[in-house]
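Allow me, if you will, to draw on your knowledge of protein folds for a short while. Thank you for your consideration; the sequence and its tokens are set out here:
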Amino acid sequence: MTTHTTLAAERFEAERPRLRAIAYRMLGSLGEAEDAVQETWLRAARADVGEVRNLSGWLTTVVSRVCLNMLRSHGTRPEVPLDAGVTEPAAGPREGGDPEEEALLADSVGVALLVVLDTLAPDERLAFVLHDLFAVPFDDIAALIGRPPATTRQLAGRARRRVRGAAPGPAADLARQRRVAEAFLAATRGGDFEALLALLHPDVVLTADRFVVPTPGPVTVGGARSVAEGAMAATGRARFTGTALLDGRVGLVMAPRGRLRLVLLFTVTGAGITAIDVVADRERLDGIEVAVLDPGADG
């Protein structure tokens, strides 16, 4: 007579943070990640784990399969309305989640990384996330996606190149752009009007396309004080915003639930920010190469 060995809830709870971390990077949404982890628990609770030698690895396989099925079944994820995406960022197969927790989680993972991952095919995303972020061997990943290990390596490599993007501009320029973009984001998030004003050239010009705020045409705002006041009015959007390489220069991306919704492109000189281009037009967004900044390239 065989004995069915069930997984103790306490053992699963010990694995939950890591499983949620994998699921969040795979799915880009806290709500969906929680759904995937819950489905993993339901499957694990029904399984006989008596012969499982590496329980952590086995649970990684289960949650990865769940996430892969979700990604494949999504096809194209529905668009997130710009304002709704800011105020209700945790929607997924089920509504819910804490917007502040989602914002903090996106910040810790990297908004730009979530944006790039969202552009990858499901198999590419799985290969990159599991291998590059969680050190899962390619042989194990290959078994998950039904591809040879050599092909799995190629998928991860292709994803890696997308994450890194094309060669950026000169390091000195990049470091200056990064300092300015990070300071702009920090001032906007913190509601520090004077700090924001100090970053702007007195004659700065901000242009926003008609999709940023629904208008018949683009909106242009001139002057440091007017631009700073407008930025202060958009602090909600800053919660889901991070720095990124945008066509090789540093800017800001806003991406609730990992979906790119808006970018800020800066023109920076020695006198400060002289121009800001705010883009929410999907056609223009699709034409911008988004990549992750090298964490060590701080200048």
Remarks:
- Residues 55-74 form the longest helix (20 residues).
